[in-house]
Write a structure and sequence with these properties.
eight-stranded mixed beta sheet; 2 domains; Rossmann fold; alpha/beta; binds succinic acid
């Protein structure tokens, strides 16, 4: 997708006026007491690239200042960053407009281009990190894709907002400030792609949008990597899985990802029917019915890779993987077993997502299928990433 050219900031927009008022207040205002700048040589601030994709963080209300509707993906990267003059205290910010859309319009092809763009930017020696501004509806998916495919130890922080920029008490400016401070922090190196929302630093692997209000991003049982406090980012933990420079997923020659479908298992379920067959399907399940077990066995016999993911994504006990024969129905889900397979050619095993939400398991399978269709190799990938 072509990059959208940068736009000039309108000095008269409501948004820019609000930014100026905030800046004047923070500076003490014309009549306020000015604190003298401390003497000494200026410290060089790290360079951070803000890549804007759209979303509510770039949203403008139809009637500014109301609680009414708004258009996501309206303000430009320059406008968003200009509205937070405090960014300049912590980083030299560069901006790039990748797209300007509601995140429901972000496609897997755009993920590939975004990852490619970020990998190229992070190869620059003078760049400390990248911030991606994004709509929150699909933020966790894009962030996880970048976690798998950005092959740099430098920080990448994905950030959004749940209130539009011109609304009352927008959360975008404070989230953006926290994101830039995190991307500029030496502590953030080697922590993988992160989501910074509401002062929390979350690993992109675990972060989920649990609800559509501020504070809605969480990692459930898996905890935060750290927080962005008044004195800046503070890390408590580092992810232990494979990502960044240790990722094996080089998508340099890939433009289109394999199609992977998502299916849901439920009482009385009989399994999905696909035409044409996709290369892979992820099933959200806590256990298959007998008919589902048979339907998925049939799909595997036809060459479709079947991954089971615990419906809630909270299966951190690891579940059973394909370590013990018979490699039959989904021990990972622990449910009703299908009828024994008829004798004949061996049935390819089901792959267990172990501890990924179904949506994230789908993304890992899309990426992994660019390398292999072998279920055992795919199981290794699900155990490592
Ligand atoms: C979007 O995802 O683009 C709109 C919703 C949001 O950013 O919170």
């Amino acid at each position: 997708m072509p990059l959208i050219p940068r736009m000039r900031v309108s000095p008269l927009s409501t948004f820019a006026r609000a930014a100026l008022v905030v800046a004047a207040l923070l500076a003490g205002g014309p009549a306020g007491a000015q604190t003298p700048a401390p003497a000494g040589p200026p410290t060089p601030r790290p360079k951070v690239l803000v890549v804007a994709t759209g979303g509510t963080i770039a949203g403008v209300q139809n009637a500014p200042g109301t609680l009414g509707g708004y258009r996501a993906g309206t303000l430009t990267a320059e406008q968003i960053t200009a509205s937070v003059p405090e960014l300049a205290r912590f980083a030299q910010v560069e901006t790039e407009q990748f797209s300007n859309v509601a995140s429901t319009l972000i496609t897997p092809e755009m993920w590939v281009q975004l990852a490619r763009r970020i990998n190229a930017a992070l190869a620059r020696e003078d760049l400390a990190g990248v911030v991606v501004t994004h709509g929150t509806d699909r933020l966790e998916e894009t962030a996880f894709f970048l976690y798998l495919t950005v092959r740099s130890a430098k920080p990448v922080v994905v950030v959004g907002a749940q209130r539009p920029a011109t609304g009352i008490s927008p959360d975008g400016p404070i989230n953006l400030l926290a994101a830039v401070r995190t991307a500029a922090s030496p502590q953030a190196v080697g922590k993988g792609v992160m989501v910074v929302m509401d002062d929390r630093i979350l690993s992109a692997r675990e972060s989920r949008k649990l609800y559509q209000r501020t504070g809605g991003f969480s990692t459930g049982e898996m905890g935060m990597l750290g927080v962005v406090a008044g004195n800046g980012p503070q890390f408590f933990f580092a992810p232990a899985r494979r990502f960044g420079p240790r990722s094996e997923f080089d998508l340099a020659g890939v433009d289109t990802l394999p199609r992977v479908e998502l299916a849901y298992s439920y009482p009385g379920g009989t399994g999905p029917r696909f035409d044409p067959l996709p290369p892979g399907v992820v099933v959200a399940t806590t256990g298959f019915t007998r008919a589902e077990g048979e339907a998925y066995r049939d799909l595997r016999m036809k060459g479709v890779v079947v991954v089971t993911a615990f419906t809630s994504g909270e299966n951190a006990n690891g579940g059973a993987t394909m370590d013990a024969p018979p490699l039959a129905e989904p021990a990972a889900a622990g449910g009703e077993r299908a009828a024994p397979a008829p004798t004949g050619p061996p049935v390819p095993p089901t792959v267990s997502a172990i501890h990924l939400t179904p949506g994230k398991a789908r993304i890992l399978l899309m990426v992994a299928l660019t390398r292999t269709k072998d279920p055992r190799e795919l199981q290794r990938i699900f155990e490592e990433y």
